[in-house]
């Protein structure tokens, strides 16, 4: 799995960082970002963190799904 955060959509609510702090953090402006080296989505509560985002700025990319398209 690969994670991306749409910076144009993120409002900096911080739910991702609260839910899965080993994968998500906030930048100096308070917007969500993926911890460097964790873009592969390996970590705890990643799916829950994506669901917790109030504006759905987090996308989880499943390589198996991408291969089918």
TrEMBL record:
InterPro entries: 3Fe4S_ferredoxin, 4Fe4S_Fe-S-bd, Fe-S_cluster_ET
A molecular-function term among this protein's GO annotations: 3 iron, 4 sulfur cluster binding
Database matches in SUPFAM superfamilies: 4Fe-4S ferredoxins (SSF54862)
Keyword RNA-binding applies: no
Cited Pfam families: Fer4_15 (PF13459)
4Fe-4S ferredoxin-type domain ranges (all copies): 1-29
Lineage: superkingdom: Bacteria
Cited PROSITE patterns: 4FE4S_FER_2
Cofactor(s), by name: [3Fe-4S] cluster
Assigned keywords, A-Z: 3Fe-4S, Electron transport, Iron, Iron-sulfur, Metal-binding, Transport
Function: Ferredoxins are iron-sulfur proteins that transfer electrons in a wide variety of metabolic reactions.
Name of this protein: Ferredoxin
Native source organism of the sequence: Streptomyces vietnamensis
């Amino acid at each position: 799995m690969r994670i991306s955060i749409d910076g144009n959509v993120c409002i900096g609510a911080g739910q991702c960082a609260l839910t899965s702090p080993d994968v998500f953090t906030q930048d100096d402006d308070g917007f969500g970002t993926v911890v460097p080296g964790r873009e592969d989505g390996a970590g705890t509560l990643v799916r829950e963190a994506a669901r917790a985002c109030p504006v759905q700025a987090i996308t989880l990319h499943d390589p198996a799904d991408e291969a089918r398209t």
